[in-house]
Amino acid sequence: MFIKNAWYCAGWDYQVSQGKTALIARKIAGERVVLYRKLNGDVVAMEDRCPHRQAALSMGSKEGDELRCMYHGLKFGSDGKCTEIPGQSNIPERACVRVFPVVEKDNWIWVWMGDPLKADPSLITDAVGPSHPDYNTRPCYIQIDADYRLENANLADLSHSSFTHDATIAMGWAQALAKPQHKVLPRGVKTDYWVRNVPVPKFVEHMFPPGFMCDAHFDITQTVPCNWILHFRVFMAGTATEGESDGMLVLDSWSCQAITPRDERSVDYYYSWGVSKATDRPGLSDLLKEGLDEAFREDKAMLEGQQKRMEEKPNFKTFDIAADAGPGKMLWVLDKLIKEEASQSESLIASMA
Amino acid sequence: MFIKNAWYCAGWDYQVSQGKTALIARKIAGERVVLYRKLNGDVVAMEDRCPHRQAALSMGSKEGDELRCMYHGLKFGSDGKCTEIPGQSNIPERACVRVFPVVEKDNWIWVWMGDPLKADPSLITDAVGPSHPDYNTRPCYIQIDADYRLENANLADLSHSSFTHDATIAMGWAQALAKPQHKVLPRGVKTDYWVRNVPVPKFVEHMFPPGFMCDAHFDITQTVPCNWILHFRVFMAGTATEGESDGMLVLDSWSCQAITPRDERSVDYYYSWGVSKATDRPGLSDLLKEGLDEAFREDKAMLEGQQKRMEEKPNFKTFDIAADAGPGKMLWVLDKLIKEEASQSESLIASMA
Amino acid sequence: MFIKNAWYCAGWDYQVSQGKTALIARKIAGERVVLYRKLNGDVVAMEDRCPHRQAALSMGSKEGDELRCMYHGLKFGSDGKCTEIPGQSNIPERACVRVFPVVEKDNWIWVWMGDPLKADPSLITDAVGPSHPDYNTRPCYIQIDADYRLENANLADLSHSSFTHDATIAMGWAQALAKPQHKVLPRGVKTDYWVRNVPVPKFVEHMFPPGFMCDAHFDITQTVPCNWILHFRVFMAGTATEGESDGMLVLDSWSCQAITPRDERSVDYYYSWGVSKATDRPGLSDLLKEGLDEAFREDKAMLEGQQKRMEEKPNFKTFDIAADAGPGKMLWVLDKLIKEEASQSESLIASMA
Ligand code: FES
Ligand code: FES
Ligand code: FES
To answer: Start and end of every Rieske domain (chains A, B, C) (predicted)?
Structure first.
């Protein structure tokens, strides 16, 4: 089940270019979408399905701001309306492709999959993208063959980092033992916590003095469908006040992650980890990127194994632990919004009856 | 849904040879078929399924004119009857494989998938095969993972050539703007039209004088299940009379295409494009073959994309354009014959009750 | 359908080692199983499914004799009980993994998939494993994508050897013409027969004098789910008494084969063919191994073709031949035991109602 009235990330802005062949095919929440740029640079998102005979519009041809289906040549404007049927003057009303609202923000392209009248850009999560002047950030990508609900649960509880990412980005057992505060938002969950007096993750250890201990602050905003924005700061241990940022800062970074369900069992995962120019040092950004890449391969293996097992035993009885508080809240919000949408369309149908 | 009482192409004649291992496995209209040649050269087609335990007879061994299942050694005559059970003298009545009528014609092997009593060789489409003395023709093949109905629609409307085959075999927009006449036949559709005063397709342009313009005549017979025979002639522009062949002929060619559904969503596609020896020139046959190969890869991509989308949204509402007249007629004939078969077997059942 | 109260082979003993990463994942009769060795060498078999969120325990980490799930860090003892939830002192009762009884015997690891109280080690088939001092034996493996019932039928009737293994391990038509005696056992079938005055299999022919003829004795015990133990002895023709072993022995060998269904349509096949040191000769063991490897690739092709055809036409009517006596008996025993299990659990449910 997907929430329809939500912004879904369709990728990094650089992926949709002006070239003739730049028709990008995506699957978002079960729908096929084709993306392209108009001459003025605006991105258009349409259903990737010709209304004539269901050919792939992403196999079509961009002509100026319009898109021609290269099966039988119907041409569509960026508003989805058919503008030409070769050899025929009459154009039927229904020769029309569904068009989705699009916004570019922080180097991500966002597509609204629900009622266009409700497409409020202020609902798009704030992020720090690759073109932010103060951070060194590179865009990354991975595909994971698992339900985006499993991703939501994964991201809403960083305790797994101590185990799944033991050899990569974990800070020992610090995250497993932390007691994060989760605050429910209208469309997500806000999570905030410190880990104190811990070593830096193994893979960056050699960049710090031997025995260096730190305090780290996690400030996370997670929103539907599955976006996850982390402001991650590291201070010399003992120098930072709770709730404030007045310590000796050794790393100021943002990790911005947008996970888009392709269908019920696979996701497109767009992520980055950017270090502030003020706290970056030679090789650090590269190292963080590699560490995160490797960590996401660890997640991929874990989640795909979990997905297979859940499909095999859908009624298997599980139990909760303390660390499930965050995932529980995030999935509760998601389910609540999905249910509200369902009841709204039911009452709409009832009012029309 | 398949028509059973029809001849299906099982491949090129050279593919079934006399060698010991020459047992060719095919899937035709959902049925597994094994083909081999008898000592006198006749081709035998049997269900590729041993009646004993359903092993593949195509993994068997040819012994003279007979076929031995190499699981437990049962041997079957070319009439399908079991002739030997090793170590056992009694042979049960039902030890019998279904045999299909076979005809070789124009270098294609044709198999009748329905009631053998109705297998009328005069229903086989006429074609110009590789061994025709007047044409230089080579046999080609592609597999396409799409419903043969989509292939029928594709071939019954060449307007798609102007778009899908834009970079290969198209003659500009000429085919999209042509107004073909479609005549319904008892088992297919006959299509006839001219395109006038157009450039030759890009990929053969360099073989003609700069700016060379031509008139081209398409004479097409399409028959069930999905056979398509085109007599394609090109004249110097302005020299040919409508309906006649009296102009300055620069290309006389046949493209013969037999598409056999393997199952509901994949086809075996046997095709050729042969140029008359009188109008061939060095390299032209090769070029046409390569052009057609490339065009069929274009079709393959388009149709497989369409197939996926139709499976995802089987109830998606489409609309028709003028170019759909040919496909509409062809699919109407096909559906009519399928329905007639169904009602005949129903009335047969009723008469026996 | 599987019999649950049975020992299933989970592989060769050397496959489960002491290393940190030595968590072996298997699928046995539809259940996911993870195997590891304790410090004392005992093998533990657990369901490969964390009770917390269904992550793969085989992606976990061995800590002493315990297994930690590396998703959220729950640790389980070798009895399946959770011993630690990081950051939480309370451990719920249901934090428990299913554990399966394990026995190592003759270099195979055996897992009991049913009621642990019924796990009687005396039900494990006797075999001659690679570490048997009197035989030169190497462990082999193949995966076959077919129902284990088809494997049972294949092994219960060696007549197929004369055809399927014509070019490899067959002794001409001798096995097809033999009249094996099949005796039904409580959990399998015992089969015993001689073939007399036949050439040795083609692939070992060059190891014997030209024209060498032999008598061969097959002594087979086949048990549920699908284990097959053959004592295979070859004598100089005419020197051995029926039922006795008093002839001129030229080959004394055991082929031990344990076939474990992964699910309803694939099996893990662990097999060996070992020659007594007394009758081995340079190169013979290697040759037999290669011959058997090749024969099992022949079986794989045949059974997978059969499997596909049975899925396509599940209601296809087949018929029996004399050679089906063995397979018929073996499948009858298997079905009987499966049915008995089903009725026992039904009466258990009834008695509790
Ligand atoms: S399917 Fe797009 S124009 Fe026909
Ligand atoms: S399956 Fe063909 S002989 Fe048994
Ligand atoms: S799934 Fe194993 S600890 Fe959570």
So the answer is: 7-111
